[in-house]
Design goal:
- The chain is α+β, with helices and mostly antiparallel strands and about 400 residues long.
- It folds into two domains: about 160 residues, 3-Layer(bba) Sandwich (FAD/NAD(P)-binding domain), CATH 3.50.50; about 180 residues, D-Amino Acid Oxidase, Chain A, domain 2 (2-Layer Sandwich).
- It is built from nine helices and 20 strands.
- Strands 4, 5, 6, 13, 14, 15, 16, 17 and 18 form a nine-stranded mixed β-sheet that branches. It has a six-stranded mixed β-sheet with strand order 8-2-1-12-20-19, with helices on one face.
- It starts with a strand and ends in a 27-residue tail after the last helix.
- The model has no long low-confidence stretch (mean pLDDT about 95).
- The chain binds flavin-adenine dinucleotide.
- The site of flavin-adenine dinucleotide has 37 residues, from α1, β2, β3, β13 and β18.
């Protein structure tokens, strides 16, 4: 590592993973976040996130997720508690699976890797996963090599590791602007006017990135997605053995969710178009959002249809225009590295993000995440971008 001092902006999954790895590679790293970490409004601060390798025909993400899964296993073996829970993932389709559809394409790619997937045709869904409407979901498959992670706790643990390993944590201060000297970025100025100098600044501020760096506003959108917590009368019906992580026509509707947690809460969210919001403004889940959820439950999960919604949250995606992360040097601003554009599917890669971001800092970005000009709008294959 030629760079000796690095400031990382943002202590979510991307930022803390980067800070840890850059510190391990010998840099003097300062991590800046308004705090407290994990920040309650960060996308990473949540009770659960999917870990899946099902990415349609996209072998790049399939392979990357498979690699991440191996590290999740290693973390399970070495952390004081398991950060990855392998419940498996149920990918349901209300149409017969056929090539070109998300479920069929994912099934073929994941099965070809040797994963013991199980096709769900006939009465199998009703027999094995009884909460689901078998009238509606006529096809699909179960991938046993998938699950979820308590993401907020994971970030908390990584922050503690970073602190123990010598990363300088500056919680309670906010990035305001870049400090420029001699045609390069030389550090940052905080909202309190404090100047912090460094050879390199890594901005990993999630959905806030395009607000902090307005020149990125044409490439990174701030998109709010509603999240619902339901409390079923009988949580036993939603335990992981018979109600694992699931997607329901996800690429056509966005719906996905999790088994009941230890508190009996079932979390459901939508990987859909969402809506643009100000990351520092009000975050409101509307009556219309709840009505859409109820309509979905009525036709798909009748035993959850009457369950009260006990909590809601509007969580923020930092959407890139093509669904790929943006992790590279800004070619027009020497000394600035951007690690953002998570597009709502970044958390599962946290075991690899430190390496990916540190390699980019050292001038070896992943081609998929490298600096690029804006093209047409697209997304990773599970994402529903709305009706054309
Ligand atoms: C509803 C929802 C569901 C999701 N589900 C999944 C899933 O199932 N699986 C999956 O893999 N991914 C999922 N994701 C995506 C995943 O959460 C993100 O990819 C990941 O958490 C992004 O991490 P981040 O570090 O980029 O951003 P964040 O976690 O948002 O962190 C950004 C940090 O920047 C800090 N910051 C903001 N402003 C400033 C400032 N001025 N100065 C310094 N710091 C600042 C914030 O305080 C925050 O700590 C989901 C996202 C959402 C919203």
């Amino acid at each position: 590592m030629t760079t000796s001092t690095i400031i990382v902006i943002g202590g979510g999954a991307f930022g803390v993973a980067a800070a840890l790895e850059l510190n391990r590679r010998g840099a003097a790293v300062t991590l800046v976040d308004p705090g407290p970490l994990p920040h309650p409004l960060a996308a990473s601060t949540d009770i659960s996130k999917f870990v899946r390798m099902d990415y349609g025909t996209d072998l790049f993400y399939t392979d990357l997720a498979a690699e991440a899964l191996d590290v999740w296993d290693a973390w399970n073996a070495t952390w004081p508690w398991p950060p990855y829970r392998e419940t498996g993932l149920l990918l349901l389709s209300s149409e017969r699976m056929r090539p070109g559809g998300f479920e069929s394409d994912s099934y073929d790619r994941v099965s070809a890797r040797g994963v013991a997937t199980e096709r769900l045709l006939g009465e199998k869904l009703e027999r094995c996963f009884p909460a689901w409407s078998a009238d509606r979901y006529v096809d699909g498959y179960f991938n046993p090599r998938a699950g979820w992670s308590p993401s907020g706790r994971v970030v908390e643990h990584l922050v503690a590791l970073a602190r123990d390993e010598g990363v300088r944590l500056r919680e309670g201060i906010r990035f305001a602007q870049l400090l420029e000297r001699d045609d390069r970025i030389a550090g940052i100025v905080t909202t309190d006017g404090e100047r912090l100098e460094a050879d390199t600044v890594v901005v990993a501020a999630g959905a806030w990135t395009s607000v902090l760096l307005p020149h990125l506003a044409d490439r990174l959108d701030v998109i709010g997605q509603p999240v619902f917590h339901l409390r079923p009368d009988d949580p036993a019906l939603f335990r992981p053995e018979i109600f694992p992580c699931w997607t329901a026509d996800i690429a056509r509707t966005g719906w996905y969710g999790f088994p009941a947690n230890d508190d009996g809460i079932v979390k459901i969210a939508n990987h859909g178009p969402g809506r643009w919001i100000d990351p520092d403004g009000a975050r409101e889940v509307t009556a219309e959002d709840v009505a859409r959820l109820r309509a979905f439950l009525d036709e798909s999960l009748p035993s959850l249809a009457g369950a009260p919604v006990v909590a809601t949250r509007l969580c923020l995606y930092g959407d890139s225009w093509d669904g790929n992360f943006l992790i590279d040097h800004d070619p027009e601003r020497p000394g600035l590295v951007v690690a953002a554009g998570d597009s709502g599917h970044g958390f599962k890669f946290v075991p690899l993000l430190g390496r990916i971001i540190a390699d980019a800092v050292e001038g070896r970005p992943y081609a998929r995440f490298a600096w690029r000009t804006r093209g047409t709008r697209s997304s990773e294959h599970a994402r529903f971008l709305g009706e054309e």
